[in-house]
Amino acid sequence: MLLGDGITIQELQPGASITLEAGGDISTDNISSIDGVFALAGGNITTLAIDAVDFVSLDAGGNINTGAFDPMTEIADAAAERGAWVHVDGAFGLWAAASPTLRHLVAGVERADSWATDAHKWLNSGYDCGFVAVRDREAHRAAMSATAAYLMQDAAHRDNWEYVLDSSRRARGFIVYAALRSLGRNGVREMIERCCRLARRMAERLGTADGVEILNDVVLNQVLVRFTPPGGGDADAFTRQVMTRVQDGGEAWMGGTTWHGMGAMRISVSNWSTTEADIDRTADAILRAAAG
Ligand SMILES: Cc1ncc(COP(=O)(O)O)c(C=O)c1O
Question: What's residue 75's pLDDT?
């Protein structure tokens, strides 16, 4: 996504992976009106749209379909001019920062007001394990904190329940601690880089076959693949069919998506234990399924 004159938006669908809050209130009306601006702009975010908002939530740290990153420095400049709060949804993409060779993808992310990322994706922890980092501690606390007579607040100490939605929760932090402690800085970097290398390997293996098209630039760990039937015909239906065949074969599982109006197989390499042999075996299974 680019903000500024001649702005274009790539990857994000209007109203889907971007949330814009006008006037400080989240309400369907506000969101609809911003969607209206999207519609008028033909799917592009324009300065007109951004003028109307004071909160921008970006799927900026690794697009769910393509792994693409938005130019965060430009977004931060545009937001700063208007005093907007910039939130980065870095569910898996923020982990690129762990690698010196991928870190450039998240350049400018340090200028955001808040980040969210998940441990249950690339860190391979159990589900529902995520982080948020908010620059303005008071804004964060004010948004999350609840009061009740039995909830004893003590200004001298940080109470963690004041920074999350739930008052009670299990010790998810322990799992994250254990994962980080066992992997170490180098282990995290190696895992992220390996998954990205394996995604490229998958794209190379598949992309040379007839009737197989890699739709995205494989910049991270995501690969979007589309299949055309051997004799020509409905590529959306055939792509779904190929996915079902692979899933039914039990060799591998991958989900589907629609990207720029095209049905695609969505491969996301994020498991710590995936090897080159797994990629080759999966690619073979996919190519067999595409051959009919
Ligand atoms: C970019 C992005 N944001 C948000 C989510 C949703 O995350 P969660 O399942 O933790 O709610 C995902 C999940 O795939 C994602 O990739």
Answer: 80
Q: What pLDDT band is residue 57 in, cutting at 50, 70 and 90?
A: low
CA distances from 207 to 20, 78, 137, 180, 266 (A): 37, 38, 47, 35, 14
Q: pLDDT for 117-145, tens place per residue?
A: 999 999 999 888 988 999 998 999 888 88
* Mutation to probe ligand 1, out of 13, 121, 176, 266 (largest number of atoms < 8 A from CB): 121
- Work out the widest C-alpha separation in the chain, in whole angstroms: 72
Return the closest-CA partner of residue 292 out of 255, 233, 256, 245: 245
Q: If you take atom 3 of ligand 1, which residue's CA is the nearest one?
A: 91
Per CATH, domain 195-291 is 3.90.1150.10: yes
In the reported structure, the alpha carbon of residue 261 is separated from the centroid of ligand 1 by a whole-number distance in angstroms of 21
Indicate the CATH number of 19-176 among 2.40.30.170, 3.40.640.10, 3.40.50.2300, 3.40.50.12780: 3.40.640.10
Cα–Cα nearest to 259, from 64, 34, 2: 64
